[in-house]
Amino acid sequence: MHAYYGIENSANLWTDKFSPRVLADLVGNSSAIATLRTWLSNWPGNQATGKASKVSTRKAILISGAPGIGKTTSAILICRELGFQTMNVNASDSRGKTGAVSDGIAGTLASTVREFVTNRNIGIDGLRSTKTALIMDEVDGMAGGDRGGISELIEVIKHTRIPIICICNDRYSQKLKTLANYCVDLPFQRPNKLQLRKYLNQIVASQRLDVDSDAVDALIEANNNDLRSSINQLQLWGMSSKHHGRNEISKKDVATSVFQAIDVLFRPSPLKTLDERLNLVFQHSDMIPLFVQENYACMRPRDSTNELQRIVHVAAASSRVAEGDVFATTINKTQNWTMMPPANIVSCVLPTSAVRGSRETFGQAERHTHRFPSLLGKLSSKSKSQRLLSELYQHFRSSGRSCSTQLEFCLWYASLTKRLLTRPLFSQARGGKELDGIPDVLNLMQTYNFTRGDWANIQEITGLSGKGPTFENPNTQIPTNVKSTFTRSCKRELQFSD
Ligand SMILES: Nc1ncnc2c1ncn2[C@@H]1O[C@H](COP(=O)(O)OP(=O)(O)OP(=O)(O)O)[C@@H](O)[C@H]1O
Ligand SMILES: [Mg+2]
């Protein structure tokens, strides 16, 4: 990096100017980088012998980690060091046929990528070949599920003749669940404060910036160890000639994301004044109370030396959260917004102060960061279920065979109806006899004016999430041929269709 200190062009971004040119310049994650190197340099060997362990024979690797900590840079540098040429695809930028960003590599680009990864001449085994690797950056920006993006990428991984390095921010994103099964898992950690301080101080010195060393520390903290935004901030400071001290940062110089704010609130080190904590909450006052509710019980309070004390602290936080809820409801009812500051103190500042410390992980694969409020996901599935239920109920009522209310239908009839609509379709019979249940189901659907769409929706609204036979979705037990014949018969015979 030192070689680049001399270049003077204020139009250049410092993140580019000081971007590591060789692996040794990278801050942190040395063991992850070593793993990447081993995987990449063994890649041809794995493919040839097929004897290596299951993990190392995977044809793709998934680098995950917070923004601005050098994931993309590491991938590019390591490929270069090992003599790989790279094709770098930013998955969230690429557009498919429809032009939608979420198309990922579907559409036109997909064929380019496919050609690239399967072409024998570019592969590693041909004599004329140069070594090549594909870097798929920001795969969490791709469409999930079966909409082309991720599943397309998985297909590409299955057939690839060259190594594929996928990069994402959130390894635990629901969308990446299947992809992760095809990839070696390689989490990157945020570099620690010490490493970052050294790196940033070098930039401060080389640019002769008038910045205190504790301002650098505060900068790192405020940016949550994101090296890229810390460097950007330094560059901004470099444009003015004034002195920069620590206080600068606490004046909300750096806008805080909701994740950063929640991190700071739960952090063990004593944070600032009540005002400053409250300010943090006010930056995202719609979200932070939800984050607090989701996460307070996972904290190991720094003041607790045994389990009992821990429970006492968590219980105190829990009471505040409950009181905060009362505040929020009252504000909503009365529209008395002047109550917001005390409400935020009760619902966010006090509970986070009571339990601040380190985060506890309960499951093995659980990530070590604060969780997004699950309430929001639940609210959205609730409103979807309600919409589906009311559609179903309208059809049910229109048959004139029952005068129950929607609630009664939901509580008494829905599960039974599901049973009657699915059971006949998964008999163990063979040789064409497995289709025998279809007329019964159609008959019932005709009687109650249900459509094929209702048939699917009722599975969804009565489904329970959990493991074991009780929770199994009967839909999955129905043989494919029965299901397709059933769908065709619905189209043919039902009076109401979707
Ligand atoms: N570990 C690091 N060592 C040195 N410089 C770094 C490091 N991490 C980030 N930087 C600086 O930040 C810039 C951006 O890094 P990079 O694009 O690799 O981050 P990223 O982890 O891929 O982020 P994102 O998740 O947003 O894509 C680099 O050009 C470099 O200047
Ligand atoms: Mg990147």
UniProtKB/TrEMBL annotation:
GO terms for molecular function: ATP binding; ATP hydrolysis activity; DNA binding; DNA clamp loader activity. The lineage of its organism: Eukaryota, Viridiplantae, Chlorophyta, Mamiellophyceae, Mamiellales. It comes from Ostreococcus lucimarinus (strain CCE9901). This is AAA+ ATPase domain-containing protein. Belongs to the activator 1 large subunit family. Keywords: ATP-binding, DNA replication, Nucleotide-binding, Nucleus. Heterotetramer of subunits RFC2, RFC3, RFC4 and RFC5 that can form a complex with RFC1. It is found in: Nucleus. One of its GO terms (biological process) is DNA replication.
